[in-house]
Write a structure and sequence with these properties.
- Among the domains are: 5-51, Uridine Diphospho-n-acetylenolpyruvylglucosamine Reductase, domain 2 (2-Layer Sandwich); 226-325, CO dehydrogenase flavoprotein, C-terminal domain (Enolase-like, domain 1).
- 27% of the residues lie in helices and 21% in strands.
- It has helices spanning 12-18, 32-37, 74-78, 81-86, 88-95, 100-105, 108-112, 119-122, 165-171, 273-279, 286-296, 308-325; strands spanning 5-8, 23-26, 45-48, 59-62, 65-69, 175-180, 183-188, 211-218, 226-231, 242-251, 254-263, 270-271.
- The chain has a five-stranded antiparallel beta sheet. Strands 9-10-11-12 form a four-stranded antiparallel beta sheet, with helices on both faces. A three-stranded parallel beta sheet has the order 1-3-2, with no helix packed on it.
- The protein starts with a strand and ends with a helix.
- Bound molecules: flavin-adenine dinucleotide and iron/sulfur cluster.
């Protein structure tokens, strides 16, 4: 690992002000330190934000919904009884991620900003990686791409976004509270991440020094009937090959409104708007679930190694929808 300087932030404002170009916030460090040891990320200064962990409750119930502290651990948020009962999609997306040790250490803010697991990105002995070295090419296009994305891809990068929690946030219309050198702001979670286009090295719309402080999840009639289904190579301690975050408001036999996101298969957290619209006003049976799943993957673009993911994602979504429809709430 290269040498770096270390600064401990006392509060969110000083944290965002002490960070300059070449610096990075250090939360749980479970992504950042790995990538520093691999020589993929090379910050000259780390601004440690762990002292902010107690600055706000991990989970606050507000009139409008939930406020989740970005500095809280994944484990404490997943175990909150209100989350488990009223927002199961959030509890499951956190509890199915990583391992207990990592979930104790890792924060919500760090989780949504984790980098891709593309092996070519994580191993600098591969020269061609536009995300790590803009303009160098993409070794994954014709390389080993079994775990790569089929949605939101570009000729410059097909790396999949690896996180689970972000799929719950995007499905539930969450917002992100930040503080930066220009002051606080709130943005839609859907506007946080970017597709790679021709600048895969720029993954989010956060400004220099902008610190995520919280996630706001609005109260809505679909949050209780919600779930996160994650399909992976082994049943624990593994990233998603495909996942579906589903939240449904059902009245009588028909779906009033649906919220759907897909993970493991896209270059960023992925909202499936067309599939949601196909469900509105319809009874949720196998035919409709099939139709919605086809629409969700209609624009998929696969490579040789990951073509299987298109059908896997369709089946994952179909199963998640039928499972959510049969929940007793
Ligand atoms: C073996 C392994 C398996 C894993 N499996 C999964 C999995 O199945 N699903 C899953 O979702 N994740 C998985 N992860 C990823 C893990 O959940 C993340 O590493 C973790 O959530 C990152 O949080 P952290 O607090 O440690 O972030 P850090 O490593 O400290 O930070 C990550 C990035 O976010 C930035 N950052 C951190 N907090 C903030 C903030 N508040 N505002 C602005 N920037 C910030 C940092 O500067 C850094 O760039 C796995 C990780 C490992 C090592
Ligand atoms: S898919 Fe993206 S991260 Fe992976 S090698 Fe290509 S450019 Fe790099």
């Amino acid at each position: 690992m290269r040498p770096f300087s270390y600064v401990r932030a006392e509060d969110a404002i000083t944290a965002s002000q002490s960070i300059g170009a070449g610096s990075a916030f250090l939360a749980g460090g479970t992504t950042l330190l790995d990538l520093m040891k691999l020589d993929v990320m090379r910050p000259e200064t780390l601004v440690d934000i762990n002292s902010l962990r107690g600055s706000a409750p991990a989970v606050a119930l507000t009139q409008g919904g939930l406020r989740l502290s970005a500095f809280a651990s994944m484990a404490e948020t997943a175990a909150d009884p209100n989350i488990e009962h009223d927002y199961p999609i959030i509890a499951q997306s956190l509890a199915l991620a990583a391992s207990p040790q990592l979930r104790n250490m890792a924060t919500l803010g760090g989780n949504v900003l984790q980098r891709t697991r593309c092996n070519y990105f994580r191993n600098p002995s591969w020269r061609a990686c536009n995300k790590r070295e803009p303009g160098s090419g993409c070794a994954a296009l014709d390389g080993v791409n079994r775990k790569h994305a089929v949605l939101g891809v570009s000729p410059h990068c097909i790396a999949s976004y690896a996180g689970d929690f972000a799929q719950a946030l995007i499905a539930l219309d969450a917002a992100v509270e930040t503080i930066g050198p220009a002051g606080p702001r709130v943005i839609k979670f859907e506007a946080l991440h970017r597709t790679p286009g021709d600048t895969p090295q720029t993954e989010t719309n956060l400004g220099q020094g902008e610190l995520i402080t919280a996630f706001i999840v609005p109260r809505a009639p679909w949050t209780r009937r919600s779930l996160y289904l994650k399909i992976r190579d082994r049943e624990s301690y593994e990233f998603a090959l495909a996942s579906a975050a589903v939240a449904l408001d059902i009245e009588g036999d028909a779906v009033k409104q649906a919220r759907i996101a897909l993970g493991g298969i896209a270059t960023r957290p992925w909202r499936a708007h067309a599939a949601e619209q196909a469900l509105a006003g319809k009874p949720l049976n196998e035919d409709i679930a099939n139709h919605a799943s086809q629409l969700a993957l209609a624009h998929a673009s696969a490579r040789q190694g990951n073509a299987f993911k298109v059908e896997l994602a369709r089946r994952t979504l179909r199963r998640a929808l039928l499972q959510a429809a049969s929940m007793k709430v």
